[in-house]
Amino acid sequence: MLKLVVLISGTGSNLRALLESLDQHSALDQHSTPINARVVAIGADTEQANLALADEFGIPSFVIKPRDYENRAEWGDALLDRIQSYEPDLTVLSGFMRLVPPRVVDVLSPELLNTHPAFLPEFPGAHAVRDALAAGATETGATMMIVDNGVDTGPIIEQHRIPIHPDDTEATLHERIKVVERQLLIDTVRRIADGTINLKEIAA
């Protein structure tokens, strides 16, 4: 069974969707094939993250706060040590709002994934939804990718286009993107677990 550590900074809405799709939880859709994966830990960089999800689903959790360390590299080493203590097959950044340091990427990638609310390489960075609206784009998207040491420059696993409506606000557009992001995350975990996605081949 594929073991996942998932890192969050906020509400964890994408993570909740994943948890509800995994065979470890009673909310599994009985009409779908169980996903041969489980989340073994949920981590965060802030105590404001929704780690109540971990309690709700009976999953261990941890917080590694950057301010507790002398520099970003030391924080990254502590984060990496905690992730590795759970021996995951896959680490997923799900609304994790910090760039992980190079050593974390070098050790964990290509089994280090992230979702992004744009059709990369369009609109990289932390304000992708706002940037798409500011650019007057008529469509944007959602992307599932392998994390590298750039800013949203890693190998793309899958992505989908999403139209931008004339009356969209940042909030309404982001909510529609999240629906697609959640499905991308679930489908990607399913396909990695059943062997139809080979991350090393994608990263090569």
Automatic annotation (TrEMBL):
EC top class named in words: transferase
UniProt: N(1)-(5-phospho-beta-D-ribosyl)glycinamide binding residues: 12-14
Associated pathway: Purine metabolism; IMP biosynthesis via de novo pathway; N(2)-formyl-N(1)-(5-phospho-D-ribosyl)glycinamide from N(1)-(5-phospho-D-ribosyl)glycinamide (10-formyl THF route): step 1/1
Coiled coil regions in record: none
Residues reported in the UniProt entry to bind (6R)-10-formyltetrahydrofolate: 72, 97-100, 114
Spans through the membrane: none
Keywords: Purine biosynthesis, Transferase
CC terms in the record's Gene Ontology section: cytosol
Cited SUPFAM superfamilies: Formyltransferase
Endpoints of the signal sequence: none
GO molecular function per UniProt: phosphoribosylglycinamide formyltransferase activity
UniProt superkingdom: Bacteria
Catalytic activity entry: N(1)-(5-phospho-beta-D-ribosyl)glycinamide + (6R)-10-formyltetrahydrofolate = N(2)-formyl-N(1)-(5-phospho-beta-D-ribosyl)glycinamide + (6S)-5,6,7,8-tetrahydrofolate + H(+)
Active site feature: 116 (proton donor)
Gene3D superfamilies, per database record: Formyl transferase, N-terminal domain
Similarity annotation: Belongs to the GART family.
Function: Catalyzes the transfer of a formyl group from 10-formyltetrahydrofolate to 5-phospho-ribosyl-glycinamide (GAR), producing 5-phospho-ribosyl-N-formylglycinamide (FGAR) and tetrahydrofolate.
Protein name: Phosphoribosylglycinamide formyltransferase
Originating species: Gulosibacter macacae
